[in-house]
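Section 5.1 Outputs to date
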Amino acid sequence: MKQFKLNYLLITLAFVSLLASCKKDKDPEFRLPTQGVYVLSQGNFNQNNSTLSYYDYRDKTTNPDIYQSSNGVKLGDTGNDVGIYGSKMYIVVNNSNRVTIADAKTAKLNKQITIAQPRFVVFYDKNAFVTSYNGTVSVIDTASLTITKTITVGRNPEQMAISNGKLYVANSGGLDFSYNFDKTVSVIDLTTLAETKKITVTDNPVSLAADSYNNIYVLSMGNYGGDATHPPIDPGMTVINAQTDVVRSKPAVSLGYSVPILAQGDFVYFPTADNKIAMFNAKTQTMERANFITDATTVTTPFALAFDKLTNQIFIADAKDYSSNGSLYVYDVTGKMAYSVTTGIIPGKIAFINK
């Protein structure tokens, strides 16, 4: 009888505990951390209409411009990149000549740093690195939010990638309209913060990604078909060995003039000339398949790629016609679309956040 009463008491306590836990789950105070995605849309040049939208995974709602709603002012002109490091979000606003630093959870403004025509940002060991069209990389201390060093690289640097303690910088020369494009990737030692060498690649390199096999992938835009006195140079890919800093190969790929790139797991993703999303096998260094997307959906103008490790989904931003609102398409790893979200004009960068 005593054993029966003890078992009954234990069952009752367990039931009460279960009810209490269910009550806690319904209470907002006990919600799990919310994750969502920021999408930075460039807007149109000289129109001051860049936007930072936020899509909430839990509520399935979109704030079309969380920066403006949090600060009461517009973000600026031609937002080019966004990255989250620690509790801060760094928004590179190219034609406004500044890097805007905001709270990563609320998008509330913290500080703005003036940099001439900034392009992209990456992070390493308490530093943010920002390329500028003036041929430099600015080093920002993420604690003091001040520029501590400026590193001279090539002409009109664009994207960067980090591997083996080195920062790789794509020097495009993209503002040289005489077809005299740059065709180098600068290598910066992240201990000394000094450029150690330049690696020659296909003309007009703009996009970089690092895989887990010590490779750097460089996508170059070529010379846009050339002219009567300049033979055409097609867009192309260069693979650099990040251990030796020697060009490993130049795989034959089909590229358009919109060249975001994503290295994730064993694969590298990038848009082709016909706006499909190609998959390149980083392990075997061969093409995996011509199109990652396996359902009937199409992307008009793929302009940004990202991977959310928490949801195991691939995000593709579609700039469409460059003048109306774009879209964010979300796919599972098999290439089937899960859902889509409306963005601002020319969605160009994607960043994920826990709240």
